[in-house]
Amino acid sequence: MDKRPVGVFDSGLGGLSAVKAMLRYLPEEDIVYFGDTGRVPYGTRSEKTIELYAKEDIAFLEKFNCKLIMAACGTVSSVAKEAMSHVKEPFVEVVTPACAAAVKATVNQRVGVMGTSATINSGSYEKEIKRRNPAIEVTGVSCPMLVSLVENDWIDSDDKIAVEIIRRYIKPLMEKKVDTIILGCTHFPHLAPIISKVAGDGVQLIDTGYEAVMRAKSILAEKDLMNEAGHKGVSKYYISDRTQNFSDIANTLLGTDISDQANFIDINKFELDLNEKDL
């Protein structure tokens, strides 16, 4: 048993899709979540900037002595190789488990990937899928506007604007007749009802947050790091901007009120402290 918390980070609200799965499948675990809402989105940033942000996010979570850290961010998981390689704790990213699930799920050997611009340009999902099964045809589409839809709570399945944006984004995937779509950004599972409705019943969606949590659960069990059975996990949420807005939207995404658990941190002040320590 290990009572230390699990650390989860994302560029903003998207990683709450992983937290939601964790609350359901790892209810005994304490969670520390950091959403970098002050600098969202990451997907349109340069590789150098994404690496920097990832290092700072990880360094923040390490202050809590986490027993496992999860990058619940498709962009970080795809681009920030250096930052991820230096994590001392057991570490989970979202690309590998999602690709494993997609390879297993596809019947016609055609897989689509929806992601941020940085994620799609990196080719991370395609490379991992091809490594597992070279015969699978992979089609990626960059969907930068979807992050903003989630961050602004435009996720209602009847929202005409959200439906039309998604319809335009996934048109190339439908033309390729994919039967499986990886939601390659953890913001996107929050839009799953719309995506599923537009794609149709014959298309299976892979939730990156859920798959990452299943991988985390396996690691915790293998390393005997699970919290004691019956313990009710406690969650703490930290964001770098707009605490009230975060709480309001998070309540919708998680289905529970977290307003008394959301805390603001000045990431610029934290950066200064980190730099001084490095010097």
Average pLDDT number: 93
Computed over alpha carbons, the radius of gyration is: 18 Å
Q: Please describe the biggest sheet, giving its number of strands, its sense, and whether it closes into a barrel.
A: 6 strands, parallel
The span between the termini is 37 Å
Describe the structure.
By secondary structure, the chain is α/β, with parallel strands linked by helices. Helices cover 48% and strands 16% of the residues. It is built from 13 helices and 10 strands. The chain has helices at 16-25, 47-62, 74-79, 81-85, 95-105, 117-122, 124-132, 145-151, 160-175, 192-199, 208-222, 243-254, 267-278, and strands at 6-10, 31-35, 68-71, 91-92, 110-115, 137-142, 180-183, 204-207, 235-239, 262-264. It has a 6-stranded parallel β-sheet, with helices on both faces. Strands 6-5-7-8 form a 4-stranded parallel β-sheet, with helices on both faces. Strand 9 (235-239), helix 12 and strand 10 form a beta-alpha-beta unit. Helix 5 packs across helix 7 (124-132) and helix 9 (160-175) crosses helix 10 (192-199).
What labels describe this entry?
13 helices, 16% strand, globular, 48% helix, alpha/beta, 6-stranded parallel sheet, 279 residues
